[in-house]
Amino acid sequence: MSEDYREFYYHQLFHDDQPRSDDLSVHPHLQLFDPNPYLSFTEILHGPTTDHDKYSPPEIVKEEENPVVVVVEAGEGGETPATPNSSTTTSSMEAAAAAGEEYSNKGKKEESQDDPSKKEAKVKKKAEKEKQPRFAFMTKSEVDHLEDGYRWRKYGQKAVKNSPYPRSYYRCTTQKCGVKKRVERSYEDPSTVITTYEGQHNHHVPANHRGQVAGMFGSPMFNPLLMPFEAGGPNFPQQLLAQMPHLYGYDGAVSNNLYHQRTLTQPHHQHSQQLPPDYGLLQDIIPKQESGFFYV
DNA sequence: CGTGTTTGACCAGCGC
DNA sequence: GCGCTGGTCAAACACG
């Protein structure tokens, strides 16, 4: 991990003077995890450097209140620039706050005194919405819309309050797949893209024209790692997470970016925490310790 | 022609 | 009630 990345990480973690990151209390729905925030994706992939081997994290990780920060360097796949360091992914409290703000605000005034049918519809709508799993993560990237293997159709763009950068709205183009994602650039760090996924893919990652799985991490070195996941089924990432609900407080969907993030994360040290019953061969590929994300 | 983007309009929720 | 904001729609447009 370069110093840059570490700086970036700490920036995300400890900027408690930011208005959007100080209100976890208002985001009870947020579930933050901290498997191992001290590793960059590079380290995860290639093993730690000697320096980092000696590195001891300060006493700042407590229970589940700190955000997961996993830095992932994007390969040269998709639209991601070819420079190895041009794109890094992390998840953070800031992203959680950014992505979750809406959740915390909406539904507060649900006690409508309107007619029962309207109220019922509202409740139903709310329940439906809350059923949609969400999580957000941050990607250090020069491009806004990172290739992640799925096909997305942009259906809207809005100016973001307090930010010079617009927010883009995407929907998965696959029929009957209602997964959406929002992409916006952090106003605090313009080099950072905040991506929020909502919903669950119910289909395979579509192959691109060359019959390969596209993706922001789709460089050749990554593809072999993708294979087992492809073989795993249409909802592989979902299945993956579904196997670790006790770890992630979640029982269903996951973004494909997370999918890649997790897929590409190579174990270099396995902790001896209990594994899910069906962790199976995934344990060879997925180091549950070094990946992370949060739901919003 | 199929697919995806752009962009202004519209709607609903929320705070004041 | 009103204004602000976020999210979505859909027509027009661009592109391969």
UniProtKB/TrEMBL annotation:
What organism, scientifically named, is this protein from?
Answer: Castilleja foliolosa
Molecular function, one GO term: DNA binding
* Ranges for region Disordered: 74-132
Q: State where composition is biased (Basic and acidic residues).
A: 103-120
Question: What subcellular locations does the record give?
Answer: Nucleus
Record's compositionally biased regions (Low complexity): 86-102
Provide a GO CC annotation, any one.
nucleus
Q: What is this protein called?
A: WRKY Transcription Factor
Going by the UniProt record, its keywords in alphabetical order are:
DNA-binding, Nucleus, Transcription, Transcription regulation
Q: Which domain of life is it from?
A: Eukaryota
Residue ranges constituting the WRKY domain according to the UniProt record:
141-206
